[in-house]
Amino acid sequence: MGQLAFTFSSKLALLSPDELYHQAESLLEHLREDRRFERKSARTSPRSLGEYLSMWANTLPDGGIIAVGVEDNGAVSGCTCLSQTELNEREQAGKVYCPGARYDTKRISAINRDGSHDFILLFRVQYRQDRVVYDSGETAWIRIGDQKHKLSTEECRELEIDKGQLDFEREPVLDVPYPEAFDKDKIALFAENFRKSRNLSYDQSNEQILALRHLGKIENESFIPNIACILVFATDPMGKFPGCRLRFRRFEGEQEQTGSRDNSVKDEWVEGSLPKIVDHTAALIDSQVRNFSRLANDGRFYVAPEYPRDAWFEAIVNACVHRSYGMKNMHIRVDMFYDRLVVESPGGFPPFVTPDNIYITQHARNPKLMDAMLYLGFVKFANEGAKRMRDEMKAMSLPAPLFEQKSVPSGNSVRVTLRNDYRKRRPWIDSDVSSVLGDAVAKSLTPEESRAINFIAQHGQINVSQLHDLVSSTVRTWHTCRKILLGLTKRGILEYRHRTDIAKDPKGHFILAEMFRKRKA
Predict the structure, then answer these.
(1) Tens digit of each residue's pLDDT (9 = 90 or more) over 100-132
(2) 337-365: per-residue pLDDT in tens?
(3) pLDDT score for 408
(4) What values do phi and psi take at 330, rounded to 5?
(5) Residue 195 binned pLDDT confidence (cut-offs 50, 70, 90)
(6) How far apart are CA 78 and CA 68, in angstroms?
(7) Which residues of the chain are in CATH 3.30.565.60 domains?
(8) Whole-angstrom Cα distance, residue 48 to residue 56?
(9) CA geometry: angle at 405 spanning 403 and 409, to 5°?
């Protein structure tokens, strides 16, 4: 019986508001207030119903249902207590108290708490994808969990931007002087790339190209940039958008610690135009991503990063391009732990996009900004970023990216988490060289020497051919790799184990010198 009840409850939780509305007569006694369903007493005023109509009209993805004649505790009080005038007022509540809402109503029979035949008035309120819906008091509401939430002025504006009522990106900015406060080289590169892509002549000026791509307008022979132009090309966009920056942190371990247990080992702010933020952040992550050596099917060793570069680079670009700049004081966060890389950006998912449909549904919050980044080479193909991240992770046998929307005090944020498989690998990595050799020695090593030490720490030993496999992209010859290992031996960092002549033993290999083996142990 318990299993049957669980199965029924699970199925009920998956029904859409439309399915609940059509099957309400048989399901009503089982329904509880949630993200789809609201109970209201028959004595609820029409004005109050207007607030709930606004709420469902603004709530993704499908709006919801109001059941009038059901008390908060689930008891059916019914609507026969209402006069015909009162009933009409409630059925017409939307026209008077929330004219922007789109809804249907119907009456379903029910037995009230006194055991008498009665009925309930149902409202099926549709989500409005084209506009923010206000009640008669010029207030907008939204559903969060099982509660009604009043939207602030800033939240209403953000929602209007998302729904296309306001073209936020194209709002002109008159107090940032052009061209003095802009990166002229970046603008020239953008215009050049656009001309080449369209086979255009050079008759148009850079400013005409910017205007053509909706990044500003020309009035009285002067170019007036808009918000999108400021974010991409201004030398100091933080003057208008204090949150146009990114905080990168790397932690030792799998959780953030604070106070005396603080485990952050790198904490850096990245500021500037969006291209600069992406470039600088990419360099930061490149310097922090750990590398592992792996034995491939061909019997050779290769270096593999803990995350594919295209996946985390796409996550950074998406955070910059698709974040909400209406939340102008909030910044992007990138946190790196042993087991995951987390990118969090201000604003919820754009309309129609959810974690469940993100690979098949795209809706750019900032299309003009994304267009500019496309011609600068930061966006590879519009609307394919999430798929590319998933495919790159899959190619390295890593979990698919986790996309989530989180509630924060000032609104919502979107969080993307990339997980590695470091638990399956022996955790000897490049950044551990200092723990084996000490900081002074570690800092004196070349990248190729660090790779050799890293490999030995992971596998116990290394030979010349294995080092050549690992560093072939920077060191061409086998003999150069041999010199690298012999050089480390002369410095007392490695020991060379061989049976015959030093130059001829095919099984000769190198291990850590005894003093470093003891430190490692």
Answers:
(1) 999 999 999 999 999 999 999 999 999 998 889
(2) 989 999 999 988 876 778 888 888 777 78
(3) 65
(4) -95, 140
(5) very high
(6) 8
(7) 245-424
(8) 13
(9) 145
- Residue 15, amino acid: L
Compute the distance between CA of residue 52 and CA of residue 38 in angstroms, rounded to an integer. 9
The residues of the chain that CATH labels 1.10.10.10 are 430-520
Q: What would the pLDDT profile of 208-220 be if each residue is shown by its tens digit?
A: 999 999 999 999 9
CATH of 2-151, one of 3.40.50.10540, 1.20.1050.10, 3.30.950.30, 3.10.129.10: 3.30.950.30
- Output DSSP code: residue 271: E
CATH class of 245-424: alpha beta
Distance (Å, whole) CA 209 – CA 219: 14
Closest CA to 96 of 137, 67, 55: 137
pLDDT, average across residues 4-10: 58
pLDDT given for residue 113 in this prediction: 92
- pLDDT given at position 183: 96
Secondary structure letter of residue 188 according to DSSP: H
Topology of domain 430-520, CATH: Arc Repressor Mutant, subunit A (1.10.10)
Among residues 135, 230, 130, which one has the least CA distance to residue 179?
230
What is the Cα gyration radius of the chain?
Answer: 31
Q: Are strands 509-512 and 494-497 parallel, antiparallel or unpaired?
A: antiparallel
Contacts of residues 293-300 at CB distance under 8 Å and 24 or more positions apart, as own/partner, are: 293/454, 293/455, 293/458, 293/459, 293/470, 300/469
